[in-house]
Structures are given as C-alpha cells and as structure tokens.
Amino acid sequence: MLNKKVKSIILAAGKGTRMKSELPKVLHTMFNKPLLGYVIDAVNKTGYINENFIIVGHESEKVEKFVKENYENSKCILQSPQLGTGDAVNKATPYLKDFDGYVIVVCGDTPLITAETIKNFVEFHDNNHADLTVMSAIFENPKNYGRIIRDKNNKFVAIIEEKDATIEQKEVKEVNAGIYCINWKTISDAFNHLHNNNAQGEYYLTDIVKWAVEKNLNVQSYILKNNDEIFGINSKIHLAQATKTLNKKSIEKLMEEGVQIVDPDTTYISPETTIGADTIILPNVYITGKNTIGKKCKIGPFSHVRDGAIIGNNVRIGNFVEIKKSVIKDNTNVSHLSYIGDSELGSHVNIGAGTITANYNPISKIKSKTIIKDGANTGSNSVLVAPVTINEMASIAAGSIITKDVEAYSLAITRSPLKIFSNWVKKKIEQLSGGNK
Ligand code: UD1
Ligand code: MG
After folding, report:
1. Among the four 159, 197, 262, 381, which has the fewest Cβ within 10 Å?
2. 336 given a catalytic annotation
3. CA neighbor of 339 nearest in space, from 383, 373, 396, 398
4. In this structure, what DSSP letter does residue 101 have?
5. What angle do CA 53, 56, 62 make, to 5 degrees?
6. Mutate to test the pocket of ligand 1, among 107, 149, 163, 205 (most ligand atoms within 8 A of CB)
7. In this predicted model, what pLDDT tens digit does every residue of 250-298 receive, in sequence order?
8. What is the rounded CA–CA span in Å between residue 374 and residue 237?
9. Which ligand is the nearest neighbour of the Cα of 134?
C-alpha cells in the first residue's frame, strides 16, 4: 500500500510529424493495438492508479474516441495549441484541484514501458517521501534527450534539454526518461511559474525540477534498468523496431513457458496471446490481438490468428489458414487454406482444405456465426454461409455451399451431377487436324 492515491497524466497531444501520416502518432498500432493503449494498460496494470488524464491535441477526436471506447477510467483533455510538455500537464490542473496524492506523468508514444517499472518507480517515490521523482536512464548515445544535471555533491538539480545544453552538459550520459512522479500538493504551484524562454520557445515540464530544488523540496531520480522501455516512437522505422522488441519479449516468454517456436525471426505473436506448453509454432505465423491457445497444438507454417481466438488442446491450424474470433475445441483440425471467422468448432471436427465460413454480409454489414458441432467434417472447398449450424457428426461433401442447418449424422451435398464425355478431347483434336488439310 502506498501512502497516497495516484492519478496519471499521459501526454499525447503531439502531432508526430515524422510519422508522415494522417493518423495521430499515438493511434499507430503494434499487433493491432494503438501505442496509447499500451501505455494506458501499463499504467492501469500497476493497480495503483484509478484515473488517467490523457492530453490530446492533434486529431483529438480520433484519440478521444479510442480512449472513450476502451478505457472507462480515462478522460481526455484538449491542449490546443501545443505549447510544450509543461503546458500539457498544466491543462490537467483544473481536474486536480485539492488532490492530495501522486501524479504520474508518462508519454503516450513510449509503448514498451511496463507496469512493473511504473509500479517500482511509484513505490520508490513513496518510500523516499519524495516531492518529485524523475525517471532517468543511462545512454551511451544520449542525443536528443534532456540531460540530468547534478551539482558537485552529485545532487540532482535540473534537467537541461539538448537544444539548450552547453557542450559540457551534452557530455552527460544520464538522461531524462520522460516519466515523472509528482507529489501534487507540493509541486503543482510550479506550473504557475514556467516560462518559455528557451531554445524551443516551449513551456518545459522539465523546469519543475529546478523550481523544486530552489524550494528545497525532496527531488529524486530513479534509474531505469532496461532502456528499451522508454523507446519513443517518432517514425515508422521506430514503430517497426518497437514491434520487433515487443515480439522478441513475447516469444521468449512463451518459449520459457514451454512453447516450441521453430523460427523466432519469422514468427509474430502478440503479448496478449497465451499458449500452452508443447504447442509447436512453425515459421511465418502471425498472431495478433488477444487469444488463448492450448497445449500440444501445431500452428503453421503460414497461419494467421487475428484476434479473439480460443483454441483448445491438440488442435492443428495449418498453412494458409486464417482464424478470427472463434472457439475451437480439443482435437480439431483446420489444416489447409481455410477461413474460420465468428465460429464455434466442437472437438474432433475436421475442416477440409479450402473451407470458408462466409460470415460477413457486405450489404447489411452484419457478421453471423457458424457453429460446427463435435465430430462433424467438411469436404474440401465447402462454403458455410452463416448463420448456419452443422450438427454432430454431420458430413459436408466437397464443393458444397451450405445455406441451411445440417442435422446430426447427415450428409449435405450441393453439386451438379458429374458428366463424362468419353473421347471428347480426341474427337476435338481429330476435327481440328481434319480442318487443316
Ligand atoms: C521530452 C523531455 C526530455 C526527455 C524526453 C524523453 C521536455 C521539455 N523534454 O523531450 O527531457 O529526455 O522527453 O522522451 O519535456 N506533448 C504534448 N504537448 C506538447 C508537447 C508535447 O502532449 O505541447 C507530448 C508529445 O506528444 C509526447 C511527449 O509530450 O508524447 C513528449 O514530447 P516531445 O516533444 O517528444 O518531447 P521531447 O523533445 O522528446
Ligand atoms: Mg519525444
């Protein structure tokens, strides 16, 4: 338990010019989840924070829509124009009047930050009875970061931005990671004293350090252990790098839990997917969103699990198979070239090559469900037009288009009768060569 309550402010008003995109930077995604979502989730997962203020500006309606639809405990506050990080935090002050607790400030474009790090950081602040704690990091190449300035007694006294730094200050390798814990009651007055008299003409949040030191308040720094966590996304190159880092972490965790991943370099698995031990993931598998996959399954090569899959034990998802929002029970096979969407598959179901659940009506825009019960099977190239139920042990003949429910233990077939014209080709050839004479 902490001594005080905690709220957070997440800075997400910046345009992200270098993304060269119509989409605001924080809505760019990794594994289909927006960057801002990763940050809000990390903050929420600490278990300490009951309310988040998201500072929005560029394309604010889009960001606000995402926050509203996904996070009940988060409120967007508009910052327009964007006058700097200090001005951004200041926009939340009307909502924090008389708040006697800690305010964590995090950037919305650092999606690799973990709940564990934020939790340890707040606990450090709390244990030290600090007024202000800044997260710092040691970088061999500290370019573009604000530098942590210490006096001759090694006491942390200020943060100087790269653009305002002297040559000597630029040598400093300890940088501001951009995450702060503020004892709101003692520090909030600092926001009335910020100025924009600096190289960028902005109100710097970092200037609250100097203000607090001058007031003899307790200012601390907390050194981050893993620098990857504050990797900020500014371009699509960064986005790809962060996705790789996140994927590596997710894959290594799964392997530690007993999942066999044949080729980690070509396998992508979202961190929100759980997989049971002894499941084998073959190369070129892409798994996004939230999924649960059981034990002893075989997935891939070249499979795509898109989100909301609940897959049991000993299930086979083979090459060129796409699974979306579907439940698949134990011992079922979907081995080749199939699409299973919005479906429920029982156990011991066998899905033939090229089976498609036609779940979407593009005119009504309605998605419907396909239910395939225990022991049923579909022949190759079947189309199951949802909503439709294939009952226990039913059999769908190859090439059939199923538009009605199929009773248990029955065969369903839609196929024009096969006709064979004997020697048809031979006659054609003779006709043609006769014509050439
Ligand atoms: C900031 C810090 C720097 C630190 C670095 C860590 C300041 C002055 N500098 O620099 O010391 O090393 O982060 O990444 O704070 N934002 C707003 N409104 C604004 C301006 C920015 O919401 O008016 C948001 C941005 O969208 C971004 C975050 O604040 O999410 C940081 O802003 P950015 O301009 O990237 O600051 P840096 O120059 O990186
Ligand atoms: Mg930045």
Report:
1. 197
2. yes
3. 383
4. S
5. 115
6. 107
7. 999 999 999 999 999 999 999 999 999 999 999 999 999 999 999 999 9
8. 46
9. 1
